[in-house]
Structure formats: structure tokens, C-alpha cells
TrEMBL record:
The keyword Lipoprotein applies. Transmembrane segments: none annotated. It is a lipid-anchor. The keyword Lipoprotein applies. It is found in: Membrane. Keywords: Lipoprotein, Membrane, Palmitate, Signal. Gene3D superfamilies: Periplasmic binding protein-like II (3.40.190.10). Belongs to the NlpA lipoprotein family. Its main location: membrane. It comes from Corynebacterium liangguodongii. This is Methionine ABC transporter substrate-binding protein. InterPro entries: Lipoprotein_NlpA.
Length: 295
């Protein structure tokens, strides 16, 4: 439920400007034209999840019709947003968006935070880190997850980074082997469950856990969603720069944090998704810092 003041302010802005913050291709459902709802075209790769069903219904209850554009892969979403094919996206982490902005020379902005999916270290037939010293830990090798996986080990006290190593985006080459309790091998993310089933500890992305029949609650260590090291991995709502202050788009962030969506998100993730509330100024500061690192 939105705060009354925020809702009133948003309504005042729209009424005064007489703007269609969003709309279907035919221009129907435009505020200020005698209609009770607006339509927002939003892109995601997660449309089949229970959270998105709850999100769509809750948004409808709030007077927003979601026109959900379903993507099967990440790469096309940001270009579609940049070219105006969609108005908002909700699929990526700050880290992924920073990589896109840096490589494509774009300036997509963040209007609000969603959840952060906790990343865990899994070790078959173990319930703690006891005995892990000297083991080789498998971590995903893709740029979006490798640094975070290494930082899971840093937070667990298993790995020490070399002086001067990048704090948020370390690689295996940045690990001080002599000062660390475990060694690290980087593999394709799809192979981390195989390492686990072979008896080796592995940092496994959440989307591979269910496919591999691994209980998300069985991790022996995990990153702290409130840690600075986890900030790049907050999932965010993204728009073009000119829409960063659009009050209707901002309402979507509030809807995502409703109890209905949060409950569904918890079911989707097996309890590994944690809602994060950060203001857009702070989120964009993190984005800009990371973008500079990737340039």
C-alpha cells in the first residue's frame, strides 16, 4: 500500500501535466482522459514466475495495466529499452546494467530496487564449513557472477585477496593463494552443480539449484545481502534517462515490494530472495561507479 502523501503527489503531477506516462500503442487508458488505469510496457526474462503473476495483479489493483514483454535471454532487453520498444525493464542486477552502459556507451538509469538473490556455497553431505580447508571450490566463470562468488568466499573467511585487488569484481588471479584456506577453479555456471554432486564445494547460482535438485537452504555459507560487496547484485527497475523521475514508473517499485509480490518471490526462490529498499540516487551512484570500472 502506498503512502498517502506519495500517491497524492504522483496524482497531482499527472493531473497538472496531463501527460501519458505510458500507454498502449493505441493510446488507450491514458490518465486525464476519463480512464482509471494506465498501461506500462515492461520487459523481463522472468515473466513465468509466480512473483510476476502477483505483480501484474497487484499493479492492476493500483490502476496500472502491465503489458509484459517476455524475453528469453538477457542481451536483447536493454537495447529494446534504449530504442523505446519497452518503457521499463525489471530483469537485471546493477552489475549487469553497468556492463551494458559501459560497453554500449548508454546511460540507462535506475528508478528503484527489487530483490537480491542470495548466492550460496554448497557442499554435498556437509552442513558447515568444518573440514573445508584445502578443498578446491568451483565458482562460475561468467563476468556477472565470478567476482561475487569469490566474495562469498571472502566473506566466509576462506579466501584472501591480494593488496590492490578490485573489491567488487575480483578474479581468481586476484586471490592470495598463500593466505587463503581454499583454492578456486572457475567453470561454466552450468558445471557448478556437477562439481557439487562430485563432492566438491561449489558456489552455485540460484537458477541452477532447482535444476540440479539442490535445496537452497542447504548452503554452508552465503553472501550478506546488506554487505557493500553484495550491492552490485541488487535487481533493479530500469528506464531511459529522461524517465528517471516519472512518478507512475516509480509506483511500480512500490507494487513490487507489496506483501503479495514478496510472498510469491519467496516461493519462487525457495527463500533465497530478499527484498531490498534503496533510493534511486544511491542505486545510480553504485551504477556509475561500476560503469567506470568496466570502461
Amino acid at each position: 500500500m502506498f503512502k498517502r502523501i506519495a500517491a497524492t503527489a504522483a496524482a497531482t503531477v499527472l493531473a497538472a501535466a496531463g501527460l501519458v506516462a505510458c500507454g498502449s500503442e493505441s493510446g488507450e487508458n491514458a490518465p486525464g482522459e476519463g480512464n482509471d488505469t494506465v498501461t506500462i510496457k515492461i520487459g523481463t526474462t522472468d515473466a513465468d514466475q509466480q512473483a510476476w503473476t502477483a505483480f501484474e495483479q497487484k499493479a492492476k489493483d493500483e490502476g496500472i495495466k502491465l503489458n509484459i514483454e517476455k524475453f528469453t535471454e538477457y542481451p536483447p532487453v536493454n537495447p529494446a529499452l534504449d530504442e523505446g520498444q519497452i518503457e521499463v525493464s525489471k530483469f537485471q542486477t546493477i552489475n549487469y546494467q553497468a556492463q551494458y552502459n559501459a560497453s554500449a556507451g548508454k546511460d540507462l538509469r535506475i528508478i528503484g530496487s527489487g530483490e537480491i538473490n542470495i548466492l550460496g556455497l554448497y557442499w554435498k553431505d556437509h552442513s558447515s564449513l568444518d573440514g573445508i580447508e584445502g578443498e578446491e571450490v568451483a565458482v562460475p566463470n561468467d563476468p556477472s557472477n565470478q567476482g561475487r562468488a569469490i566474495n562469498v568466499l571472502v566473506q566466509a573467511g576462506l579466501v584472501t585477496l591480494k593488496d590492490g585487488a578490485p573489491k567488487l569484481t575480483p578474479t581468481p588471479a586476484d586471490i592470495d593463494a598463500a593466505a587463503s584456506k581454499v583454492s578456486v577453479v572457475a567453470v561454466d555456471a552450468s558445471q557448478t552443480p556437477s562439481a557439487y554432486h562430485e563432492g566438491r564445494p561449489a558456489v552455485i547460482n540460484n537458477n541452477w539449484l532447482s535444476r540440479a535438485g539442490i535445496d537452497p537452504a542447504s548452503s554452508v555459507a552465503a553472501d550478506d545481502p546488506n554487505s557493500e560487496l553484495a550491492e552490485p547484485y541488487i535487481n533493479v527497475f530500469t528506464v531511459r534517462a529522461e524517465d528517471v523521475d516519472n512518478p507512475i514508473y516509480a509506483r511500480l517499485v512500490e507494487v513490487w515490494h507489496s506483501p503479495e509480490v514478496t510472498d510469491a518471490l519467496n516461493k519462487d526462490s525457495g527463500g533465497t530472495a530478499v527484498q531490498v529498499k534503496r533510493d534511486k540516487e544511491e542505486l545510480n551512484a553504485i551504477l556509475d561507479k561500476l560503469t567506470e570500472e568496466y570502461k
